[in-house]
Each structure stands twice: as structure tokens, then as C-alpha cells.
Specification:
This is CHAD domain-containing protein. It holds the Pfam family CHAD. By secondary structure, the chain is mainly α. The chain folds into 2 domains: about 170 residues, no CATH class; about 120 residues, no CATH class. It is about 70% helix and about 0% strand.
């Protein structure tokens, strides 16, 4: 799907919307992955990200209220940012100000996604525990309209078109063979050091540093997925399983902690929210230990690169 098609259609076509699109495995072979120069590697990574971003953006622009479209577009944009950041020395083709242009969409996606998760995952558990959950409503119609307007907006559309042009240059330059994978491997080693350093005393870190560790783990996993075709499949699968488990547990811990903070703030004017805050803090303490264990398992895992 071309970027120019995203804005076509309207909410009346909801019944014919395509399902959400997940990230696909990189299409390049092991030989290609090892031989690509940095610019060619980045172009291939961008094309892979856009193959996830464009159809999910189209679904939202045409009126979809499917939470999976929201989730997959957000993942696609996060993968795009990770790719551009990881391959920064080769990113001359990227449009100026692209990060600022996609930020409003990314933040709106996060707001809608967080409200949906709180309403469908956290609220039932709080109700079962007897806590008030009035604050955990799902995304509103206004939230959906705002997101749709941002996705349809000229700023976001223009950046996606320019990104797509970046993947199809008229005269691609030829850099040093293998420089793309060399850069990826350096980034993987650096992020691995940062993530495993956090694993040593994860439960003693400030929440801000725990959150930073989660973001770094996401970037590590996304870049590892781009590098994976160049390496042994069994080794890749073994490492990815541990990375996915650690990412899942860190995500659960961060969500519980943020919810606990939100209810603690509400308790200043709503005494009933105090029960929810205490319950969530207890769950967050348990999730800290689980996150630490999964990070330590990842630290002991053999990297495939």
C-alpha cells in the first residue's frame, strides 16, 4: 500500500477495513544482510517498518476503532525510530524534522492504547479486588477523532511519503560492504551492556531508570530482529524467547507502577482511590522481582551475534 492511499476513504468503510498488520521478518537473506553497506541496510529497515506502518495508519485514517490497529501502528513507529537511531551515521536521506512530525501521532497512539489496556486488563482486576475504577474508562470518541485527525494530517502524511522515497533512491550510493551489519552489531553490544547492567539491581533502581531499561530493551530487541537473518536460526530463537519474556515482564511492571502513581495522586481528593493505589503498589513490588529475574536470565543468555 502506498502512503498516498492512507487518506482515501472514510468511517463508512469500516466493514471493509483490512485487519491490523504485524511486523514481518526482514526479507533479506543471510548473505545479503552480511554484505549490505550502511545506507542499503537502513533503506531495507525503513521499508520493512513502512510495510507495517502504512496499512495500520490507513485503517485508523479510514475510521477503524480496532485497538490492534492502534497497537501495531505504535509498534511500527517505535521500530522506525529504533532503526533510524541505530543506523544514525547512514541516515542522511531521512527528512529533516521527521521525529518531531511523528511525535504527536506517537503520543496520541500511546494515550489511546494505555486507556484501552487499563480498561480491559487492569480494571477487571481492580473490580475483583473491590477497588473503584471510575478513572479507568477506555478511550473516548474524542480520543479516536483526535488520533484520526493526526494520522490524516499533512505533517504525518508528508513524512511517510518522504520516508518511502528514501527507501527507493534514484541513484543509491555504494558504501563499504558489510558496514550495515557492523553498525548493527556495535549497537546490539552497546544496548546489551546497558540492559544487563540494569539487571544487576533492577529492584533498587529509580522508576525513571527502570523505565529507561525497558525502552532500551525494546530497541535491543527490534535491532536484533533486523540483524537476525544473518545468524543461526536456533540461536536467534533461543535469545529472542528470553528477550520477549523480559520485555513482557518489564512492561507489566511499568504499567502497574504508573497506575499506582495515578491512583495515589487521585487519593488526595478521592479517599476511595487509596485502596486501589495500595493494591497496585503491592502488585508492582511483586512484578519488580519477576522483571529482575527475567532480566538476569537474559543477561546469562548467549547472544547470537
Amino acid at each position: 500500500m502506498k502512503v498516498r492511499e492512507i487518506k482515501h476513504g472514510d468511517a463508512g468503510r469500516r466493514g471493509r477495513l483490512a485487519p491490523a498488520v504485524k511486523a514481518s521478518a526482514p526479507a533479506w537473506s543471510a548473505r545479503q544482510a552480511r554484505a549490505m553497506d550502511g545506507e542499503a541496510m537502513l533503506r531495507a529497515m525503513l521499508a520493512n517498518c513502512l510495510a507495517q506502518i502504512v496499512p495500520n495508519a490507513a485503517g485508523i485514517a479510514r475510521g477503524s476503532d480496532d485497538p490492534e490497529h492502534v497497537h501495531q501502528l505504535r509498534v511500527g513507529l517505535r521500530r522506525l525510530r529504533s532503526a533510524a537511531r541505530g543506523m544514525r551515521p547512514f541516515a542522511a536521506c531521512l527528512p529533516s524534522g521527521w521525529g518531531s512530525a511523528i511525535l504527536p501521532v506517537f503520543e496520541a497512539l500511546g494515550d489511546v492504547r494505555d486507556k484501552h489496556v487499563r480498561a480491559t486488563t487492569l480494571a477487571p482486576r481492580l473490580r475483583e479486588a473491590g477497588a473503584p475504577v471510575a478513572e479507568l474508562d477506555g478511550p473516548s470518541e474524542e480520543d479516536a477523532r483526535r488520533l484520526r485527525a493526526l494520522v490524516r494530517g499533512d505533517g504525518f502524511q508528508s513524512v511517510l511519503r518522504q520516508m518511502q522515497s528514501c527507501t527507493e533512491p534514484d541513484e543509491p550510493t555504494r558504501g563499504d560492504a558489510g558496514s550495515g551489519m557492523a553498525r548493527l552489531k556495535r549497537q546490539l553490544r552497546r544496548l546489551t551492556r546497558q540492559v544487563t547492567r540494569a539487571a544487576r539491581r533492577f529492584d533498587e533502581l529509580s522508576f525513571a531508570r527502570q523505565h529507561r531499561a525497558r525502552k532500551r530493551l525494546k530497541r535491543l530487541r527490534y535491532l536484533a530482529e533486523f540483524a537476525a537473518p544473518a545468524f543461526d536460526r536456533d540461536a536467534v530463537d533461543a535469545w529472542m524467547a528470553k528477550a520477549s519474556r523480559a520485555q513482557e515482564r518489564l512492561g507489566r511492571h511499568i504499567d502497574l507502577t504508573l497506575a499506582a502513581q495515578r491512583f495515589a495522586s487521585a487519593a488526595r481528593t478521592d479517599p476511595g482511590a487509596g485502596f486501589a493505589a495500595r493494591w497496585l503498589r503491592a502488585k508492582a513490588e511483586a512484578s519488580t522481582r519477576k522483571a529482575r529475574k527475567s532480566l538476569r536470565r537474559l543477561r546469562r543468555a548467549r547472544t547470537f551475534w
